[in-house]
Write a structure and sequence with these properties.
By secondary structure, this protein is of the alpha/beta class. The protein folds into two domains: 217 residues, D-Maltodextrin-Binding Protein, domain 2; 199 residues, Periplasmic binding protein-like II (D-Maltodextrin-Binding Protein, domain 2, 3-Layer(aba) Sandwich), CATH 3.40.190.10. It has 19 helices and 18 strands. Strands 1, 2, 3, 4, 7, 17 and 18 form a seven-stranded mixed β-sheet that branches. A five-stranded mixed β-sheet has the order 12-9-13-8-14, with helices on both faces.
């Protein structure tokens, strides 16, 4: 994961799943106030014979207004073509499911996270990118590699920021205390505030075993069965016990809730700190104002040793439906929406961290208050790629078991059983 840093310099937030309905349509010709799309070709001949073009685009709800503006700008780049674009809210994590259910009625261009690419390629419902050389030249190498299967790139990189980190009220968590989970919890307890994370969500609860040395290692040749790196069972179990004991010791302070409760908790004054994703940065900054604090995830003490918490870290992409009725136009639009200008515009308006190398080096991105947090955590993470479909639920159950009131953190045998049952359930295809 250290390779990410050279090209990353990413920021904050990434919008996650929002179910959506209704749409907005971009049509017409002439000028636009949207992105210029520098770096994307405006050669009309790329469309071939395609004209009277109608496209549907899916994007997360938080990005719809900007996505509509960017699609308007795209239309304006090609006044010789009649292009109509419908923009519809659809969360990235649900896009793959919708596409697999019926590609013929799905969007032509859609957002998706890195762990969805394999299943879409295997189902043959996503097109190989048409501008591979441009994608390779302009984007972070690790992001491109995560979308590459058998030397073919299957999605246009959009962000390099899909991770989570510590967000806190700096009037509650004292300077320096953000480095250790123990002192964060103690500060929150002293202030009568809650510490919130979604311990029952596999995306977050994987930290309980990743921190102990267990890591994913892609899929078996069947493309379905999860592989893991070699690990020391005693180390993983001891780390699970440390998390479980700490959460039990601070049971009146620790709360396992969906991460949306963190920003609302800051607003109401009930939350002192939490583990949240990059997609919620704007909400948390708005709630905290001058009291906003962000840092990499803290350490946790395991048998006298402070261990850096290890997280999941991924990327987001724009894909093209293999069933698109206007495949050339869909490819050109997907390339445009992931261009330098569009990525920088999203960074400025939404806080999304660019995968485009030039955008990532912009003054805005480099000077953003949350950069150091997400970059530091990226060095201590496991790539969200090549994950089995059944990875998430067993890992979420592990988190729920660790924090359950009935759980005895000192029972080593029970913890070993929980770990082995979790891995068996993940591997059981």
């Amino acid at each position: 994961m250290k390779k990410i840093i050279a090209g990353l310099l990413a920021v904050m937030m990434m919008a996650t799943a929002f179910a959506g309905c209704g749409g907005q349509t971009s049509t017409g010709e002439g000028s636009s106030n949207g992105s210029s799309g520098e770096g994307s070709s405006t050669d009309t001949s790329l469309f071939g014979e395609e004209d009277n073009i109608s496209l549907k685009v899916w994007g997360p709800d938080a990005s719809i207004n900007l996505l509509k503006k960017q699609c308007d700008a795209f239309v304006a780049l090609y006044p010789e073509k009649k292009i109509s674009i419908e923009v519809v809210a659809q969360g990235e994590s649900d896009a793959a499911t919708q596409l697999l259910n019926d590609a013929s009625t799905a969007a032509d261009v859609f957002g998706l996270p890195s762990d969805q690419i394999n299943k879409l390629v295997n189902a043959k419902v996503i097109q190989e990118v048409a501008f591979a050389d441009e994608v390779k030249a302009n984007n972070d190498t690790n992001v491109v590699e995560a979308a590459t299967i058998d030397d073919k790139i299957y999605a246009y990189p959009e962000t390099a920021d899909n991770g989570y980190y510590l967000v806190y009220d700096n009037s509650v968590v004292k300077s320096g205390d953000e480095a250790k989970l123990e002192t964060i919890l103690e500060d929150c307890k002293a202030a009568g505030k809650k510490f919130i994370m979604d311990a029952g969500n596999g995306f977050y609860s994987c930290m309980f075993v990743f921190t102990g040395g267990l890591k994913t290692d892609g899929l078996e040749e069947d493309g379905l069965t999860q592989k893991f790196t070699d690990y020391n069972e005693d180390d993983v179990v001891a780390t699970m016990q440390a998390f479980s004991k700490l959460f039990h010791d601070y049971s009146s302070t620790f709360q396992s809730l969906e991460v949306s409760n963190i920003a609302s908790g800051f607003s109401s004054g009930t939350c002192g700190a939490g583990i949240d994703g990059t997609w919620d940065v704007v909400a948390n900054q708005t709630a905290l104002g001058d009291k906003y604090g962000a840092a990499k995830l803290p350490t946790i003490n395991v048998n006298g040793e402070d261990k850096q918490i290890v997280s999941m870290f991924g990327y987001k992409y724009v894909g093209v439906n293999a069933a698109a009725k206007f495949p050339r136009a869909a490819q050109i639009l997907a390339n445009y929406l992931t261009s330098e200008d569009c990525q920088l515009e999203r960074a400025q308006e939404l806080g999304w961290g660019p995968s485009n190398k030039a955008a990532a080096q912009s003054d805005f991105v480099k000077n953003n208050v949350t950069i150091s947090a997400i970059l530091a955590q990226a060095e201590n993470s496991v790539a969200q790629a090549d994950l089995a479909d059944q990875f998430w639920d067993p890992m979420g159950n592990l988190g729920n078991q660790l924090i359950a009131e009935k759980t005895d953190p000192t029972n080593t045998d029970a913890m070993k059983q929980l770990l082995n049952e979790t891995l068996t359930n993940i591997k059981d295809v």
